[in-house]
Design a protein that fits this description.
With 384 residues, the protein is an alpha/beta fold. Helix content is 40%, strand content 13%. It is built from 15 helices and twelve strands. α1 runs parallel beside α15 and α6 runs parallel beside α7. It is globular.
Length: 384
């Protein structure tokens, strides 16, 4: 599907909503958001260097109400605050205020344990997970529509070689743009054999999911070669809160005296308590097989699980049959689109247009109907 010029103009006028992007990786590009055709960017924080920048971007393009986004024509940024699994080794989970030795910390969370002292000494001093969560909670409260993200698990990621971009040294960065990158990204550096242990990643992820649950915020989840582990972690959070199966609902509705006296009061009291899991979760640039969707979309899962797709990730290979099959299998109301790009502007708009057209083609939607559906999905994911 290519879309006529009129159809494409109508698409932009209706509203295109990027569910996951990183324009603060080149902060100078944030000013270009005002000139973009996309209406809303959901901008992810990932590490220490970009939390303030995401906050600043959100203040430049503020959202006052969901109605603004649904009906307005301005440009908006919805911020997401979180710590990406690629940088999870930089966080320690020690409860005391005293920070652990950096060398011992990294030897305990990296696999295999490094013995290269030059590499170890190039890594930044680990920061406190507890303190980060306190700061993130303050940010989330300051932005009532903010998400938690980008968080997740990644089995394939390997740390880059030093001098580490994670220390803020960008003197030898490679590729990408003439603009200055925000410090902390990989920036094309050669990779080491070291990975972050999955157990440490899980601890960092679980703490952030708990925060999202506490504040009732949606979450954007990164998952690479870890979809089963991510699901198991989520499942452990909502255990005991599953929705009844169709058979159980039918049995309960037909049972005599199904609602004993006083049950209504108990239900009302329970509804005031925050649930122990995030209400809505997006598996961003979902790369798992179609068969794995069944566990996420089971009728008993009490959280609403969405799946976003990007041209850059899901359709980067000549053969994209897996992504096509997944998009065919996801329910109409659980599909989101994203650019996952590090730089705002025309290229981001181009990638968004490409993925909207691709999804409409795969689903057999007209461009008008597909744009409206994707818009409604994003609004429901972010605002509930």
């Amino acid at each position: 599907m290519n879309g006529s010029k009129d159809d494409l103009e109508s698409m932009w006028e209706s509203g295109v909503f990027d569910a996951h992007c990183h324009p603060t990786d080149i902060m100078a590009s944030v000013r270009d958001i005002a000139k973009m055709k996309a209406r809303v960017l959901t901008v992810m924080a990932t590490r220490s260097q970009d939390q303030d920048m995401v906050e600043n971007a959100a203040r430049m393009y503020p959202v006052d109400s969901p109605q603004d986004i649904a009906e307005g024509t301005s440009k908006y940024v919805i911020p997401a605050f979180g710590w990406h699994p690629w940088f999870s080794h930089q966080m320690h989970n020690v409860e005391s205020d005293a920070s652990p030795s950096a060398i011992e910390h990294y030897k305990s969370v990296l696999v295999p344990a490094p013995d290269d002292m030059d590499f170890l000494q190039s890594l930044p001093a680990p920061r406190s997970l507890r303190q980060f969560l306190e700061q993130t909670e303050s940010r989330l409260k300051a932005f009532p529509f903010a998400l938690v993200g980008e968080v997740g698990l990644d089995r394939s990621f390997r740390l880059p070689q030093g001098p580490s971009a994670m220390t803020g040294d960008t003197s030898s960065k490679t590729g990408g743009s003439e603009e200055e990158y925000t410090p902390g990204s990989r920036e094309g550096r050669p990779l080491t054999p070291y990975r972050v242990s999955i157990e440490h990643q899980k601890a960092i992820l679980r703490a952030q999911l708990d925060l999202a649950a506490k504040l009732g915020r949606p979450v954007s989840v990164h998952s690479v070669q870890a979809h089963g582990v991510v699901f198991d972690l989520m499942q452990s959070m909502w255990k005991g809160h599953e929705r009844p199966s169709k058979r159980e609902r039918k049995r309960n509705s037909s049972a005599p005296h199904a609602h004993a006296a006083g049950d209504g009061d108990n239900d009302a009291e329970k509804s005031k308590r925050p649930l122990p899991f995030p209400p809505r979760i997006c598996m961003h640039s979902y790369s798992g097989p179609a068969e794995a969707l069944k566990q996420f979309l089971s009728p008993t899962v009490p959280a609403d699980i969405y799946f976003s797709f990007s041209a850059a990730i899901n359709f980067s290979n000549p053969s994209s049959d897996k992504a096509t099959n997944v998009i065919k299998a996801v329910p109409d109301d659980r599909i989101l689109i994203e650019s996952d790009l590090h730089c705002a502007g025309e290229t981001m708009d181009s990638l968004l247009r490409e993925i909207v057209l691709k999804i409409c083609e795969i689903r057999g939607w007209s461009l008008e109907d597909g744009t409206k559906q994707l818009k409604a999905n994003w609004i429901r994911f972010v605002f509930g």
